[in-house]
Write a structure and sequence with these properties.
This protein has three helices and 24 strands. The protein is of the alpha/beta class.
Length: 200
């Protein structure tokens, strides 16, 4: 399904295969020879998405562009089933496996691999040819790649990357406080703009 959002329509090369249950919404550009699988969602919420040539986005993957961080995918990239990419840059020939997550401001280098359920955190740079093993976390610039049981080590790198400021543009709340009362009404209002979307 193709959807116009915020007066922007997807631009898709005629050779692209889009499964009938996939959703392509807003300012999305898809290059020649690419395939978008069943249930996949490519949504340019507040920023554009550009997917290169001869890529495969598999079933139920989600790709999301944001105002602060557009999403770009180079040529010959695989995005596996249930993968989640938001506001990141994926360079040519990369492999993003089933269930992997790549967050705002991250860069996945050429030929890098994020294996099953791997995570690349905000503002993290995964160098060319690097590998995030199954279930591991990459964090920092350059990336430090750690197993999930090393939470304290991950947090030591992650905290200064400042998730609240990077993703929502707000300061981290004091201990015992929450950013949600400030952020969620604004975020919901932005998403409410979808009520005016037009199916093409």
């Amino acid at each position: 399904m193709l959807i116009e959002h915020n007066s922007k329509r997807p631009r898709i090369d005629p050779s692209v295969r889009i499964a009938p249950t996939a959703v392509i919404c807003g300012d999305v550009t898809i290059g020649a020879g690419t395939s978008v699988g069943f249930g996949a969602v490519l949504t340019a919420e507040t920023g554009p998405i550009v997917v290169g040539r001869h890529c495969v986005t598999m079933e139920n993957a989600v790709l999301r562009g944001t105002r602060r961080h557009p999403l770009t995918v180079g040529d010959t990239v695989l995005v596996g089933p249930r993968a989640y990419l938001t506001g990141c840059s994926v360079e040519d020939n990369a492999f993003i496996a089933t269930g992997a997550a790549v967050f705002n401001g991250a860069v996945i280098g050429t030929r890098a691999e994020v294996r099953i359920n791997g995570t690349v955190h905000i503002r993290t740079r995964l160098e060319a040819d690097a590998t995030v093993p199954i279930g591991w976390i990459a964090v920092g610039d350059p990336a430090v790649i750690l197993p999930p049981d090393r939470h304290d080590d991950i947090w030591a790198v992650q905290e200064p990357l400042d998730f609240p400021k990077t993703v929502f543009g707000v300061d981290r709340p004091a201990p015992g406080e929450s950013l949600m009362p400030d952020v969620m009404p604004r975020y919901a209002a932005v998403l409410a703009r979808h009520k005016d979307d037009e199916v093409l």
